Amino acid sequence: MNKKSQCSLEKGPKVVAIGGGTGLSILLRGLKEYTSNITAIVTVADDGGSSGVLREDLGMLPPGDIRSCILALANTEPIMEKLLQYRFSEGILKGQSFGNLFIAAMNEICGSFEAAVKETSNVLAVTGKVLPMTLEDVTLYAELENGYTIKGESKIPLKNKELSSRIKRIFMEPRVSYPLKEAVESIEEADIIVLGPGSLYTSVIPNLLVNDMVDTIYRSKGLKVYIANVMTQPGETDGYTVLDHVNGILDHSREDLLDYVIANVEKIPDATLKKYIFDGSEPVILGPKDEDILAEKGIKLIKDNLVDIKKDYIRHDSLKLSRILVDLVKNKA
After folding, report:
1. Which residues make Cβ contacts (< 8 Å) with residue 316, sequence separation at least 6?
2. What predicted TM-score, i.e. pTM, was given to this entire model?
């Protein structure tokens, strides 16, 4: 990167992106093309897969979503990214990600998860900052409309799919958990705060359950934006419209939290949809009255064609999404 490009990135807007999973890491890849002033605040409620194994075996916070976000913002050689994304296919390490093991080793060397994330970010020349939502060892619960309560982030979509009940609310144990001071400062100084895209109840909302997080976001002078998912998630948001997603956010925060909602209106090719529909997922659409109800709530709706399909995987177009976010800040100024 030449000095001129680097200089323009350094003058880019201060963006705080909050969430987890694939959705957040995809957004970050686009954002770093427009600004270097990025803070990603990432959920650590994950208890499944290789992250869950390390969490149980080593008593550390789950590194999976953190790893994905670090790699999304890293300025490193392609072979290094391949190495850190590599999953072992045989033996005792089968299914384990090398990147997760790297962070686990850093955790042991540095003596804390927070320091491990910072040092990993330094090694990989990360643009901006990646921060865990809290340093508490939290467990996620879902209370369903049928009265049943599910314990554990990884079990929520699986068990709820089986029970076919909507999620009433999400909560965490311990009830008291605090954000990092650095995260609070980034939110206070932000030009724009972005929630999503990502799993509504297991990636985005958990960040809002950390003590003082909602009030900190609300008090910030930055724009507050929610990016609605392109597809519903089986066992989590079955049949949800854009408004249902927004209500999930507001029900776990406050009615006047959001300034904008960004929603996809691009039609997805039937050939690509087939696999998703077979798995129980469908496009997130605007309901007949969604736009009017959002307007009544004082939330501005931005509609655009935002789909990027690669190898039959439906994702957000990260560059287009990032352009919209950057333009919102410019137009506000």
Report:
1. 23, 26, 27, 197, 227, 230, 264, 306, 307, 308
2. 0.95
Q: What DSSP state is assigned to residue 285? A: -
Could you give the CA distance from residue 24 to residue 250 in angstroms, rounded to a whole number? 19
Residue type for position 265: V
pLDDT of residue 7: 74
Paired residues of 307 in beta bridges = 316
In this structure, the strands spanning 192-195 and 167-173 are: unpaired
Q: Which of 327, 224, 318, 305 is nearest to 32 (CA)?
A: 318
Query: Which stretches in the chain have pLDDT values below 70?
Result: 1-4, 333
Largest separation between any pair of C-alpha atoms in the chain:
58
Q: Which of 30, 77, 22 is nearest to 314 (CA)?
A: 22
Q: Is 249 left (phi over 0), alpha (psi -120 to 50) or beta?
A: alpha
Q: Which residue has the tokens 């999503």?
A: 196
pLDDT of residue 36: 97
Provide the token pair at 51.
Answer: 């992250």
The phi, psi pair for 18, rounded to 5°, reads: -120, 130
Contact of 100 with 54, CB cutoff 8 Å: yes
Domains of the chain: 3-45+133-332 (3.40.50.10680), 46-132 (no CATH)
State the residue for tokens 């650095």: 182
Torsion 204-209-210-214 (CA) sign = positive
**Is the previous residue joined to 197 through a cis bond, with omega within 30 degrees of 0?**
yes
